[in-house]
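Notebook entry, structure prediction.
Reason for the run: the old model in the group folder had no record of what sequence produced it. Starting over properly, with the input documented here first.
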Amino acid sequence: MFFRYLREPTATDLMPSRDGFKYLEYGMMALGWVPQAIDKKYLCIYRMWTMFVIMLAGYLPVGLCITYVKEFSTFTPGELFTSLQAGFNAPAAFTRGVISFLNIWRLMELKKLLDEIDKRCVTEEERIRVHRAVIRGNKIYLLYQFTYSIFVTLTYLTSVCRGLTPWRVYNHFIDWRDGPWSLLSASFIEYIIMSSGVYFNQMTDVYPLIFGFALRSHLQLLCTRIENLRTNPAMSEEQNYFAFSGCIEDHKLILKICDLMRPYISQTTFVQFLFVGLLFGLTMINLMFFADLWMGLASIAYIIALFFQTFPFCFTCNLIESDCENLALALFQSKWIDAPRPYKSALIYFLQNVQQSIRFTAGSIFPISLDTNIKVAKLAFSVVTFVKQMNIAEKLKTT
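New structure, fully documented this time:
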């Protein structure tokens, strides 16, 4: 059953960390990104599907550019800004999607490393916490799927009801002005093309977020293990040192997982930061000056989708830094004062390492954090302010 990865935990049925990426992997398979999961006898057909989806997503920015060159004078201001939302986002979505496709091997390696760190979850309480993190990851994917689908579908339906195509993507074979059937056909083709680009965006937006939640769950589990060090009087000093060594190995494995994902996160988030402030600005201009009721609803859905692109992962990165601080604090406050000398020596070494927070950057330039996200969002208000001060909206309405 599709929703079995949302099931509540029971003592005999607990999911591993890798299952938190299950729905994400289904989505990537639908886009043709996961040939590793396909039977060899269907691999050729699957690769053809992969190329078809990539060509669809790649045609989106090309088709919009052709439309701007050929039909720019026919746009109303509202239609123009609705189209520009997709026009600026399309190349970014395609670029990030290609980066994700080329880095799909990292997902396979990540699942192996998560299997390895799951072996440290020996108690039922720890395994239940992992299970709940898996449910959270899959719910996040479904939330993103719903949000992005609502934007595409609302824009499609509101445009068709008004007798227009949604984004005016260039179609050499069908002129949507030739009649109702031409309009419906051209609009549906646009809907399919836009869906490919939007789902490219969705996969690259939700992937780091699910990873961030999985990482946080294991950081918190490690923090709990550290707090429990040398609290069991039945354990010998040798056993305590062995348990402490296990915590050190867990931290090394967490850092290895972060190093695996860091290049991918850096590349995709950098491209995202370059465009999202401008997209917020264009959408707000459309909403404030040109959109009617139905296009306003579509613009609001788009703003929510843009919000989902940056804020959740930036917030998660702040939470990861907070978890790292809690980890260092838990280690310092653990029962080490009367420990043997080898234990204290290892603790000093470990404390120096855990005090270095886990951080991610966009393009090795911007720290991925709420502060950066706010600075990027301010660009939207700058764009709106510029349009208002230059009276551009009124000039567009009168032309």
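Summary: The chain has a mean pLDDT of 88.
The old model has been moved to the deprecated folder.
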